[in-house]
Amino acid sequence: MSIWGSLIGGFIGFTFGGPLGMLLGSLIGGRLSRVKFSSHQTGSTAQQQQIFALSLIVLSAKLSKADGHVSKEEIIAVKDKLNIPKSEMKQVGKIFNKAKEESIGFEPYAEQISTMFRGNQNVLEEVINILFYVAEADGEVSSSEEKMIEEIAKIFGLEQHQYQSIKESRKSSDKVNPYIVLGCSPDDTLQNIRKKYIQLSKKHHPDLLMSKGVPEEVINESKKKMRAINSAWDQIQKLKST
Prior knowledge:
Mean pLDDT: 80
Distance between the termini: 51 Å
Order of helices and strands: HHHHHHHHHHHHH
Largest sheet: none
Strand content: under 5%
Shape: globular
Structural class: mainly alpha
Number of domains: 1
Radius of gyration: 19 Å
């Protein structure tokens, strides 16, 4: 079942506070009522995946106007990257527009998302990864967009080397610094670098991310991250052997 099916209605009955709960409540037209969940909604993974999708929509909406204007390319990027079917665009558009138009900033949302995925930093890293994709959609990441993404990463509790690794992995292969991607130094031994490579490979494996709440619909970006990790390891082995 797609995560987009009844995205808004799927949260009815779920105790949902904070800014995300207020946003959903305003769209539903009142307080979220307590009703019995159907079996597919009670599954923690399914629920986490819907929260992940909701988080991306809201933060993407905030990011889309970070540089002062919302471009058509960024809106298309959100639709394409999240694999939103045409049949669900109307309700997803409601969430996006509501988040874009309201006066509240991105910080309260980022703080709530960080709390909800506490202990799942690989999931939070994936949010940052996809936000970079959205920012890249109109040709380049503006300084205001990059500043916002970096601030969200800080709110998520990510270390600077984690943020830099994500940012570096977005570059084309001929421009990437493999040491930054793996979060290591050229002075590190090949054995220690290999340990970091193995840790990152496990951390960003698509199957693990899906079990942690990253929906299948957006898993392609994690595959791109994995390719960057593997490529960085290959490059470093060649550099160390010369």
